[in-house]
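This part of the workshop introduces the protein records we will be handling. Each record describes a single protein and holds just a pair of labelled lines. Instead of coordinates, the fold is spelled out as a row of discrete tokens. To make this concrete, we reproduce a full record directly below:
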Amino acid sequence: MRRADRLFQIIQLLRKDRVVTAREIAEKLEVSERTIYRDMQDLSLSGVPISSEAGSGYRMLPGFHLPPLMFTEDELSALLIGARMVQVWTDKGLASAATQAMIKIESAVPEHMRDELERQDILVPDFGNDPSVSKRMQLLRVGIKALQKVEFSYKREDGQPSSRMVHPLGLFYWGKVWTLTAWCELRDEFRCFRLDRMTHVSLLEDGYESVAGRTLQDYLQRVCDE
């Protein structure tokens, strides 16, 4: 968790109008009590009115409010729909991040806007994203971010099996299927692979360098030029 996110979470815990101990906060955020002591000091120095009660814990003094996030109804709807799409169409890591983002938005929007969070007429049904695809996606995202090679078995469109080692570059959603765009070492060229045709996906320790002519931007430029 980033430090800014941790400080935000501490403020949310203190806003519940009760005394909270450093140990309780540390366990909730999975950090050390020493880290919480430093965070409390920094929050106090930045002007957050925190009262430290010896032997019992911390509490927020009355009158403190985070600046409200100002959204129009359409902007709020767009955020809600987007978050819901992430929750049902991606992997567990991104779904959890979308949920936490909406919790932050809900806690920061003005009171009169919160009804909009409950009143939605554009829905995103959950038809059960294939758990195996979600697991592959989460692994591939790690490879993309860390510039690590990925190896997997793949069933081609003609049904023939193959084994690939690739440099993962980007994930694309086409309404029904997710695909991986990668630099394929077997073909020495860009290739796109459907996640639902992959098996035995492994993230390798070997990394790869971002080389001119083999990046996601190069691939997108080629597609635009065709």
In short: The chain has three domains: 3-60, 73-118, 131-225. The longest helix spans residues 73-89. Residues 150 and 203 are 5 Å apart (CA to CA). Helices lie at 3-14, 22-29, 33-45, 73-89, 92-108, 114-118, 131-146, 216-225.
